[in-house]
Amino acid sequence: MQYFVARRKFQQARKPYDVRDVIEQYSQGHLNMMVRIKELQRRLDHSLGKPAFFLSEKGLDKGYYTAGARLIRLEDKVSA
């Protein structure tokens, strides 16, 4: 009895994959990866500040407490 069960499981495992299923799984994985990347980018922008925002003009970032803004203020203090 166990032989027949094992043989059936083995044959099911050997079946070729359905292309549509593979593409759907790949798409879901890609979508999950893109969501995680966007969330990571949002968190980085929140903690460091957007690069274009605090590098364009040094006077505009005085009210923001991001790491990038604090670094610019520290550089201003050191150079002054």
UniProtKB/TrEMBL annotation:
Entry superkingdom: Eukaryota
InterPro entries: K_chnl_volt-dep_KCNQ, K_chnl_volt-dep_KCNQ_C
Record's bilayer topology term: Multi-pass membrane protein
Keyword line: Cell membrane, Ion channel, Ion transport, Membrane, Potassium, Potassium channel, Potassium transport, Transport, Voltage-gated channel
Locations listed in the record: Cell membrane
Main location: membrane
Alphabetized Gene3D superfamilies for the sequence: 6.10.140.1910
Entry GO MF terms: voltage-gated potassium channel activity
Recorded catalytic activity of this chain's protein: K(+)(in) = K(+)(out)
Pfam families named in the record: KCNQ_channel
A GO term from the CC aspect: voltage-gated potassium channel complex
Record-annotated Potassium channel voltage dependent KCNQ C-terminal domain positions: 1-62
UniProt name for this protein: Potassium channel voltage dependent KCNQ C-terminal domain-containing protein
Lineage, opening ranks: Eukaryota, Metazoa, Chordata, Craniata, Vertebrata
